Amino acid sequence: MVLTSLIGSKEASEFRWLVMDSIGSIADYFSEKMHKQDTELLVELRHFPRKSRKSGYHIIHICTEMAPVVSVGSLAPYVTGLSRALQRKGNLVEVILPKYASLNLNEVHGLREVEAEFHSYFNGQLHGNRIWTGVVCGIGVTFIEPLYYSAFFGCENIYGYSNDFERFTYFSRASLDYIIKAGKHPDVLHIHNWETSIVGPLFWDVFVNQGLGGTRIMLTCQSFESQCVEQPEKLALCGLDPYGLHCSDRLQDNNKSHLVNVLKAGVVYSNNVIIMSSMQTKGQIIHATSHGLEPTLTIHKDKLVVAPPGFDSSAWDPSVDMFLPQNYSADLKGKSVCKVSLQQHLGLQEKASIVLVGFTLVEDLPAKVYNQTLLMGISQRLSLLLAFSL
């Protein structure tokens, strides 16, 4: 509504607080009104009952995956599960994604294009974008579709192209431009892996004084293996100063001093950094699996937090799952029955005390087998099942 000049940013901010304060009921209230025009919905919002303000946060994820609309690895279910959990706690959560050609749009409720002009900066010029909005798993999602650079996200795969830096830098800058244009004032911008780490320096060097003084940056790293190193001059594409950032305490790569490191940018310019690991301590990660970022992580160790991969119990609950031969809950009664059933299915020795370890890609599993194996209570690593011990 701000993009179409129907309301101002101040009133939009008030409505966002209204949504936050009414979370859990507003979705039901408006579920049958999604087909209405903005002018009609505006009337509904202005008559929606006010409640006492909760102490929640406005959180915006700027990321490249979200299950089930676009999923390559563990990032996608992490974003969805975390967003749903935060929203259930009374926070207002949004997600911004590129509008890939390969999106599973069947999973987007109420998808529509915003009929408004929106431009973002890249390579010295302002470029037009289409903005699409919808709801995924109860979370509001914005999709950004470049017009001039339409090939950036019109390709078959999500990652693995020679211009990945340009693609995701464009998206990161466009996401921040959109947040400003839409009059949003989030408490937290949550960025993920190297692909959106450039948001960190962009935010503090370009955007913080555009009404975002109260916003803080959080970075989540699924691992430090993929970092993206590039020529410093490429930073100018999104409006950053290559000369000011190409130094050891900022973006200069720790091993290749003539290059800049995009993931390092996220670490240096974030207020908090979440490292996903269920088996390693902070010290072990810094000294053994940082892939050259050890000096940077050591300097910023006070803002590092190690967190195990999460699991969204609202998306899967073994106490009610219909695919299990016997349901179980936290007391694990019935789990051994499920294990024996799996052994039967795979033609293995049927004995609940035997430890099974299986390796298989999640995407390769049929739905029923996927649910059975996942529900054996194994470590929930969504890129790889490390299965079935009891």
What would you call the structural class? Answer: alpha/beta
CATH fold-type name of the largest domain: Rossmann fold
Q: Which CATH top level class of the largest domain fits?
A: Alpha Beta
Shape: globular
Domain tally: 3
State the helix count. Answer: 12
Q: What characterizes the major β-sheet?
A: 10 strands, mixed
Contiguous runs where pLDDT drops below 50 for at least 5 residues:
360-390
Radius of gyration, in angstroms, nearest whole number:
22 Å
Count of β-strands: 12
CATH architecture of the largest domain: 3-Layer(aba) Sandwich
Report on the structure:
With 390 residues, the chain is α/β, with parallel strands linked by helices. It folds into 3 domains: 9-47, no CATH class; 58-307, Glycogen Phosphorylase B (Rossmann fold), CATH 3.40.50.2000; 332-388, no CATH class. The chain has 12 helices and 12 strands. Strands 1, 2, 3, 4, 5, 6, 7, 8, 11 and 12 form a 10-stranded mixed beta sheet that branches. Strands 9-10 form a two-stranded antiparallel ribbon. Mean pLDDT is 85; it is low at 360-390. Its EC number is 2.4.1.21. One of its GO terms (biological process) is starch biosynthetic process. InterPro entries: Starch_synth_cat_dom (IPR013534).
